[in-house]
Amino acid sequence: MNRSSRISCQRAYLLHSRPYRNTSLIIDVFTPDHGRIGLVARGARVARSRWAAVLQPFQPLLLSWQGRGELKTLTAAECDGAPRWLQGNALISGLYSNEILLRLLQREDPHPGLLRYYENLLTELDPDSQQSQAPAPDIEYSLRRFEKQLLQELGYGLLLDRDARSDSPVEAESRYFYYVDEGPVLCLSATASGFIVKGSTLLALAGDRPLDSEARRESKQLMRLALRRHLGDRPVHSRRLYRSSTI
After folding, report:
1. DSSP letter at 70?
2. What is the pLDDT of residue 243?
3. Which helix or strand (DSSP H or E) is residue 11 part of?
4. What is the structure's pLDDT at 48?
5. CA distances for 65 relative to 14, 40, 105, angstroms
6. How far apart are CA 76 and CA 50, in angstroms?
7. CATH code (residue 33)
8. Where are the beta strands (DSSP E) in 100-233?
């Protein structure tokens, strides 16, 4: 899409940045009304740049830009709320969510619902946003739910609660072959090969319910299988940061 634009004070999150020429950055940002946008932040790498402390991942932003083509020019940037200081596995999970958004979102394709899901994920990953008496965030549960929501928003939603061929409700104690392009199919052979998942795992994912240890393992395998179809064979670099990663 090639639009002439002059946009003011659009809510945004930084997904990725890279150096551009001697003093600037190219940034990819996620916005509610314009989707993923590429912007040139001129002078952002010079000493005392007014944007250096603002253009940070997980920071709610207000951005303004102008220009034509795929890369527009950033004209203003300010914080739109308190920063989120993610650490450890939460930080890696945040970087992972940014990476898959960057790779799956098309430029200038709005997904305001997905932005809300992303903000919810960041809130759950940030311990400072939790109430003092709240339990520690369940990062695996939050990630699996976000991955499911991401696929739904992009039109690749997973069938989880009905058998793809018989249209019968999924039964918690049964096991199912899962075909990404089709859905779950009841497994009738004890020696069958392929990706097999328990019905209780599918139902927990469908209902956004907490996952037990078996469901955590199966749901991670299922989401990796589903996302690989759209991410391709190129590795997800953020997964390498944590050996026993939840992602």
Report:
1. S
2. 55
3. strand 5-20
4. 87
5. 14, 9, 20
6. 10
7. 2.40.50.140
8. 175-179, 183-186, 196-198
Which of 57, 79, 101 delimits the end of a domain?
79
Half-sphere exposure of 190 (CA within 13 A, CB side): 0
> Looking up tokens 């991410």, which residue turns up?
231
Q: 244 burial class (0-12, 13-18, 19+ CB within 10 angstroms)?
A: exposed
Which residue do the tokens 């799956």 mark? 104
DSSP code for 55: S
- Residue 195, judged by CB atoms within 10 A of its CB (0-12, 13-18, 19+), counts as middle
pTM for this entry: 0.91
Q: Which two tokens stand for residue 63?
A: 């951005």
Check pLDDT > 60 for residue 1: no
Cβ count within 10 A of residue 114: 21
The rounded mean pLDDT for the chain is: 91
The residue out of 79, 102, 127 marking a domain boundary is 79
Domain, as residue range, for 165:
88-241
